[in-house]
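Deliverable D5.2: sample structural annotation.
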Amino acid sequence: MAQTTAVHPVDEVPPVRQLAAFGLQHVLAMYAGAVAVPLIVGGAMKLSPADLAYLITADLLVCGIATLIQCVGFWRFGVRLPIMQGCTFAAVSPMVLIGTTGGGLPAIYGSVIVAGLAIMLLAPVFGTLLRFFPPLVTGTVILIIGISLLPVAGNWAAGGVGSADFGAPKNIALALFVLVVVLGVQRFAPAFLSRIAVLIGIGVGLAAAVPFGFTDFDGVGDADWVGISTPFHFGAPTFEFSAIVSMLVVALVTMTETTGDLIAVGEMTDRRIEPRSLSDGLRADGLSTVLGGVFNTFPYTAYAQNVGLVGMTRVRSRWVVATAGGILVLLGLLPKLGAVVAAVPAPVLGGAGLVMFGTVAASGLRTLTQVDFKGNNNLTVVAVSVAMGVLPVGVPTIYEKFPDWFQTVMNSGISAGCLTAIALNLLFNHLPAKAGSAAPELDGLAGGGTEEGVEKSREEVV
């Protein structure tokens, strides 16, 4: 009898109707974040409305291409996991500084191209560092990712940063309504519908928002039907040393963040990241960033909000996210469709985001259950790393007196927490233990040097 090889859930191809629904759900989850970067950078540079619209459509187009590269992959490019790609917020401050101090968009794009090439060259080096990401570190990083994203959901629920009615009770009420719908669908609806609970919640929330005046569809009528992004639309790139240096720092930050996101999705999909696949994923990031510099947009990284959606829905197929990438390409080529999606009110996204981002944090806690906290310093590693990761989230101006390169690294709670977790794991679990020190069992608050539950393979951890 012929034996059929079982297909891993990551490689399964759902029916077309499910692909479309699941893919659209991923697009809605990341759309606000995707368009925020070009809006912030373009607004700071006082670009015209036409140029702002061009930046947004170019960003959506390259977001889709980058997602397809990451999910489908070719040769040594792409991790081949359900990973959504989008513009990184770590690059916003450096790009605004470059763009407003005389360099303009050409200097931004020159530095972005160099950063993308650097990421591709450094990808194999990062792949060899995977042994420094045991469950202790990965669980902590995933927890920090979730906690860092929760304020984003909170700002959406309140109406969106900068909105005139920020924090109005009607905004909070709409967000809570969407949250209740998502939870109700997930608990009581049939299996298929429960997997698109976020999409249903956003749809119901949008329908409820229309009669109360939350939505503004004026932008749909003003948008063009077709728009094509051409290379170097704003002029040939220029390569300025200071701009390149600042963007290289951003590249290291985004590589660290992407590593955490890839490991998180690997844990959720039961296809754990290996050094080769990590290198392939980072190499895809670098290629997408180069494309961003060529096609008038910005550096790209894995989007953590979609990591939460994978964990919440338990839909692990990479082809679902590849479909989302195809939808983004369409939105980039058809600006009128993009304007329709952009009309979804921020409170609707906030209600759904509370569930998704909380799921990321809960997944980190689940990974940490694999770690032994008895008679060692592992609890200290988690405690200090989470504190360092949450610090810039809770106090955004804490590092404003520091040099720009330091702010670029530490203002990202994800990179700050990740670097802290790696350093403390090396300090407590890789350096030789103190002579004659017997680690007392103080629930992980004391002891030194033991690696039990940290350096074991995940299959061996009890």
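Annotation notes: Residues 16-44 form the longest helix (29 residues). DSSP finds 18 helices and two strands in the chain.
The annotation will be released with the project's public dataset once the embargo ends.
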